[in-house]
Structures
1.
Amino acid sequence: MPDAIVLALPDSCLVVLIGAAGSGKSTFATRHFAPDEVLSSDAFRERIAGDRADQSVTGAAFAALHRVLRHRLARRALTVVDATSVGRSDRRPLVRAAQAAGVPCVAVVLDLPADVVLARNAGRQADAVPEAVVRRHLARLASSMRPPGLEREGFARAFVLRDPATVDRVLVVRVAGGAGAPAPDIPRLRSRRRSA
């Protein structure tokens, strides 16, 4: 891949995808990870209610997601959580689960421009999220990105992707490390900050 931006991940870690609805988290997960590595909150809603957009089962969906997550982390299996995770309270139990299992927790943030996210969400056929909800996601994400940032929350590293072209250039590679091995030196990825 020409001009690839390499995201080096430990082969045993928790990857938390962070971004508003419509930012491309599920597309990113599908492109870079095996289906059995991805725990999607939408998929758990669909399993429980038959409708991935049914917010009435969100509590049950996340309870099920966290049960599966704990089992995967106990096996030291690379696991990706595909949910908005835009607030610190959303991320805290994920970071704690990784810490309890002794595996690094890595954030991949899709902090794309609001107009891009809103247009993508509006273009979804059946799965469009109300615009007001997406705007709340964007506001919570902006708050999360202010210093001191995600690494203060316990993430080993935070990769922040700020535009679609950068997202398209990402190449995820696995870095070998046995049980108990320290997390490899994962470079921080910071694309140029967009103007406000």
2.
Amino acid sequence: MSLICMKRSTILCFFLVLCCLGCGIGNRDKELKIKEEAISKKQQELLLWEQRLTLKEKDLTARKQLLDSNKVIDTIMVYDKYLPGKWLVKMQCTETSCDGSAIGDTKTEQWEVTSTNNNVVAKAYTGKQLSRIYNGVSKENGLMLTDQLSTTQSLIRITLRPTADDVLEGTREIIQENCKIVYSLVAKRIP
């Protein structure tokens, strides 16, 4: 009987070992599946990150191209020698919060412009009468003129850029204590 007991105990041990091994394989399969899911999730996150980076790169490239296309060679310096002379200046009100002015109001002046070493003086005439003197500078980003009205607390600020041969365009802002008027401005050289 002892031989039969030994055979049974050997078979029983064999089955126990197989069961233990089977349990370990099941646990390893579960661990592998968890690791595969984690790796798959990381791959998806990396793909999303790569897509975001690609979009950012495209956006940066587009912005760079826009900046490059807007990059202005110092045209005012090129135009600086052409600034002196007479200009017909037409202005139209585009924005106002001041009493006595309305959107659509127009003004026409004739300017005599002189320029020395980027310093610009523009004498504004209404008809034959001198109405205002603007002082300013020509810079990379345009022509900047101002006039501090001595009789009031007003400031007139003009910004112009060359848009074509003998044409300057920009804005004229009249800034008062309680309000502001903005004009679009086009200046054309008088031959």
